[in-house]
Design a protein that fits this description.
The chain folds into two domains: 309 residues, FAD/NAD(P)-binding domain, CATH 3.50.50; 183 residues, FAD/NAD(P)-binding domain, CATH 3.50.50.60. It contains 14 helices and 23 strands. It has 510 residues and is an alpha/beta fold. A five-stranded parallel β-sheet has the order 3-2-1-7-21, covered by helices on one side. A five-stranded parallel β-sheet has the order 9-18-10-11-14, covered by helices on one side. The relative contact order is 0.16. The two termini are 23 Å apart. β15 and β16 form a beta hairpin. The chain binds NADP nicotinamide-adenine-dinucleotide phosphate (NAP). NADP nicotinamide-adenine-dinucleotide phosphate binds next to α4.
Amino acid sequence: MMMASTYRNKENTELPIVIVGSGFGGIGMAIQLKKAGIHSFTIIERGDEIGGTWRDNTYPGCACDVPSYVYSFSFEQNPDWSRMFAEGPEIQAYLLHCVEKYALRQHLKLKTEIVEASYDDKQGLWILVTGDGEKIKARALISAVGGLTDPALPAIPGINDFKGQIFHTARWDHNYDLKGKRVAIIGTGCSAVQVIPNIAPMVKQLTVFQRTAAWVLPKYDRVISDRTKTLFAKWPLLQKIVRGSLLWGSEALGPFIILNSERLSGVFERVSTRHLNKSVKSQELRKKLTPNFQFGCKRMIISSDYYPALERENVTLETSGIRQFVAQGIVSKDGRTHEFDAVILATGFNLGLTSAPFKITGSQQRSLDADWAEGAVAYKGVAVSGFPNWFSIMGPNTGPGHTSVLIYTEAQINYILQALKYLKDENLKSIDVKQAVQDDYNEGLQNRMKYTVWTSGSCKSWYLNADGSNHALYPGFAHEYTSRVRTFDPIEYKITSNEISAEDWALQAI
Ligand code: NAP
């Protein structure tokens, strides 16, 4: 075996990397690779533009309920955010700005879906297959496909019999004019709560089908003044301080949202109840809108215009449940038929955090679907044993319940970058996290999960698998997660050296 170091030649040693997905994760990874002087990467995206969530969700009222100063990259702060909570198009524009600024277009392969990836042990390469049957080779594969991507369509009997217009919030039909129409919306999660106040004034009648009442906190949104923008542009440190205080503020509130403590949950339950009582006059409506689970168990909702919209004369909150669809509308469980011109499905997403994003076969023909049959597990949410040189952004147990997901995303990007540099600089064939290391990490993580409100049993949510286990969220503080992911330690990995020169090795992958 040749010594890897003999062939350590940074100019010639290209490391073909494929990033799948071009949302915040994929774009952030690409920027950091470029900053590190690694240019041999391709971003593969199934859509016709970058942006992920912010490309797909174009429903009226789409906005982020995390303040813009923290829902953006730390290394690419924008002093020009127009609002405290930016709307979808502004966030998409920010991502497009990142693509242009860091010249990422040349690395993008749009309208290309990866349907399969398998690891070739002999060559130490990932072989990717696209929807068109094209094969792409990569030394390292980074999955940045996002968690909440594919719409979940409800299994309601007769759904295909409905003769009106029907579409999901994440696939908004902009060719259909809702003006003056009788409209139903199914679901009262974060998406629905943003849609409802924005379409209520234009439709003739809006019926909101609520299955579970949610805890709703007021949204302290505001327009950012020109003075603030100028100040932030001139003194970026000021914006950094604001960002830092928003982050540490959300961390301080973390235990109230994460822990299974009725006393702590009670604080936000009182804030939410006060918000409900202040916003809704009707006692009957208040009753229907009062949740029956512990605060934090489901994703909290932040809105100041949702409750008032429900008191409009043309809006009805329907809580008797849905029995079935019929040609002209929906039959509720109490036997009434509600006629509609259009039905909007605000029914959420098939969770992509805890299943293989496409068919992935690792070393020795190991199947990711089989490994994850009882719940997705990874080391620090980033690497999976038996799947060498494969890394995941927003992988298992890395979602937050209380703060900006981008804090976690950036920490993962930094960790993956260290791993890739190690792979490149040491001219290695592969690195593969040790099974025992991964098992230890997950045992500790699941032990802590028992103390969270998410698994308290007081609600059902997209956080949980069918067996009630949580493979989606991280049971702790953001700063604690980021410190755990700060340093890539090769000792935790099985390392295989290259038997060929770095140049040949790079050529092999072309
Ligand atoms: P969601 O939170 O999963 O909500 C889906 C809604 O549809 C729930 O109210 C659910 O009721 C209802 N539903 C699902 N199937 C149903 C059925 N068969 N019959 C009746 N009702 C049904 O989905 P989402 O609102 O799209 O939000 C998903 C996640 O995206 C959020 O948790 C959040 O993380 C993210 N998001 C974030 C923002 C933001 O501003 N940052 C905005 C939108 C979305 P149950 O509650 O009874 O299950």
